[in-house]
Each structure stands twice: as C-alpha cells, then as structure tokens.
Amino acid sequence: MIKKETIELIKKAIEIETRNAIETYGEKYNSYHEGYAILKEEIEEVMFPAKIICDDLERMWSDIRADIMSFIPNLTDTMLNNLINLIAEACQCCAVINKIKKGVSK
Q1: What is the pTM of this model?
Q2: Residue 102: helix, strand or coil by DSSP?
Q3: What's the gap between Cα 54 and its chain centre?
Q4: How many Cβ atoms from other residues are within 10 Å of residue 42's Cβ?
C-alpha cells in the first residue's frame, strides 16, 4: 500500500507540472481536439519508458535464470531511472488532464 505522504507528494508534483504548463502554454487549450492531441502525445511518452522497463525486466529474469548476476546492478539502475521518467511523464499527463478540465478558450 502506498503511504498517504507519498500520494500527497505525487499530487504536489502534479500541481507543479500543471502550473508550469499553464505558465508556459496558457490556462486553457484552444479546443478539446488540441487537449486530446497533447494528452495522446504525453501518454505515448509514458509508454516509451514503460516498454523499456518491461524489456529490462525480461532481461533481468533471463539473467537470473542463467545465473548471470553481474549485470543486475546496472540493469536495476537503468530500470530505476526509467521508472522515475515514467512517473514524471505521468505527472505531465495529469497536468494536461487538469488543463482539459478547465475547458477551452472561447
């Protein structure tokens, strides 16, 4: 179970990303089509590290079965970095959703 404190920190990160998106690109999207396109792009950016993580997990299992432990530390470092990137991209997805919830510019 994820601690409440962790959830609060994630929510704070989403607030920071939402504020950054608004400061950089404006409070609302020009249309829901624009919001959708940006959300789709951000979700694709979540999927990239997720795919790498899954591939690395398979490699880890192959190495474990082959009793090749020397690569595990580097592999886990890579996985950790990719998981952090995934979390960051997921926060950006949430920021896009927060902007979509504000409606569109008239």
Answers
A1: 0.88
A2: coil
A3: 15
A4: 20
By three-state DSSP, how is residue 31 classified?
coil
For residue 29, report the phi and psi dihedrals to the nearest 5 degrees.
Answer: -80, 160
- The token duo for 101 is 């919830």
Q: What is the pLDDT of residues 16-48, one digit of tens each?
A: 999 999 999 999 999 999 999 999 999 999 999
Can you read off the two tokens belonging to residue 105? 């510019």
Alpha helices in the chain (DSSP H): 4-25, 32-65, 72-101
pLDDT, one tens digit per residue, over 60-71 is 999 899 988 888
d(CA 31, CA 11): 26
CA distance 100 to 84: 25
